[in-house]
Amino acid sequence: MTKGARPDSFPPGQFRDRFRLPHGPEGRDCLYFCGNSLGLQPIAAADAVAAELERWASLGVAGHFDGPLAWMTYHRLATDNLALLAGAQRLEVVAMNSLTVNLHLMMVSFFRPEGKRRRIVIERGAFPSDRHAVAAQLALHGGDLAHDLVELAPRRDGLLHEEDLEDYLERYGDSVALVLWPGVQYASGQVFDLARIARACARAGVTLGLDLAHAIGNIPLALHDWGVDFAVWCSYKYLNSGPGAVAGCFVHQRHAEFKGNRLSGWWGHDEKSRFKMAPEFKPAKGAEGWQLSNPPILALAPLWASLDLFAEADIHALRHASLELTGHLASAINTRLDEAIHIITPLEPHRRGCQLSLRVQAGRSAGRRLFERLEAHGVVADWREPDIIRVAPVPLYNRVEECDAFVDLVEKLL
């Protein structure tokens, strides 16, 4: 979207012809509502990868240094657009590794249990990989999982409430070393007020880390202004960068010259002296200082190809289109399927993103049966245990008409 354009100037699905859509039964385009799990392939991704294969073939090792796409600095092709999506300074973001690797790297540096402050606070029902990583870090520090891992439970409405975290930190903040929180809860699709959470952590003197796997490319972020200490994300969901794509990391500018512990690798070494091959590690300034190895070029190519689409569309315009899609879908479900389907995602605009999580009222078996029948009819959504069907109309490529077609089909199958 051009500067100064209205935030409602991106009609849902406007970039559909920039993506490749899987085919369903009889060769028809499927109804693809699974961008919350794996985004569609941008058409430009194949060209970007092919270009690097050709550069490798024609230049060999010289590709590391030749021209504006030199592999030495190739990861920075994503920096400007990642900074825009994260609400960050260029110094604060880097494309590297995978999400859980980045989470471990961040916790090595920013989980510093000392004295009474030994606890990590997460949400009950966190994505399993996050919980595994947190448990491992506690074990490395000799922590007691039963005492030092605090999992805040949802209320009776099934949702997590920011005031419960605020209350916990007000009462027990002096025992907390780290809060690790999602931007969007993966199962329910609930969007959190991250500015409010950041303020609560700051009042308690607690380090805040965010898992933005379901938030980046979905909702506008302002990590720098909020004062978040660190954040990590994957790039294969809303960022459409392919299965197992290169992930990302944010480290706030106040930690740019971090002096504490970190796991070090040569690509995190200051670029000016990296190839002097000295034994001492001199970290690069900012988030790049947490890099380990040289980046996988063929895996990075689809990332910057996809990020160019976000730069063109603008995340605020996409957010407006997303609310139109989910609002339309939720209204149709509640009007036509209210007795059969319950939407567990909160429907207030500021508390929902692209994803609506659905529960079939008749129970898990009926829900699983509906999911499988939808799949057989060319609907691509996903299932999360124990009984949730996640449906995510993505504004880059989904249209209002597809939401109607989905509801028509569910009504027929039920």
Structure description:
- Helix content is 35%, strand content 13%.
- The protein has 414 residues and is of the alpha/beta class.
- It has two domains: 16-33 and 314-413, Aspartate Aminotransferase, domain 1, CATH 3.90.1150.10; 62-311, Aspartate Aminotransferase, domain 2, CATH 3.40.640.10.
- The strands form four sheets. It has a seven-stranded mixed β-sheet, sandwiched between helices.
- α2 packs across α9.
- The mean pLDDT is 96.
CATH topology of the largest domain: Aspartate Aminotransferase, domain 2
What form results from the Cα inertia axes? globular
Q: Main beta sheet: strand number and arrangement? A: 7 strands, mixed
Q: What is the rounded Rg? A: 22 Å
Spatial order of strands in the largest sheet = 4-10-9-8-7-5-6
Please give the alpha-carbon distance between the first and last residues.
41 Å
Looking at this structure, what is the CATH superfamily of the largest domain? Type I PLP-dependent aspartate aminotransferase-like (Major domain)
Oligomer kind? single chain
Low-confidence parts lasting 5 or more residues at pLDDT below 50?
A: none
Known CATH architecture of the largest domain: 3-Layer(aba) Sandwich
Number of strands: 15
Structural classification: alpha/beta
Could you tell me the mean pLDDT?
Answer: 96
What is the CATH top level name of the largest domain? Alpha Beta
Helix content: 25-40%
Per DSSP, what share of the residues sits in E-state strands of 2 or more residues? Answer: 5-15%
Number of domains: 2
Instruction: Give the count of helical stretches.
Output: 12
Order of SSEs:
EEEHHEHEHHEHEHEHEEHHEEHEEEH
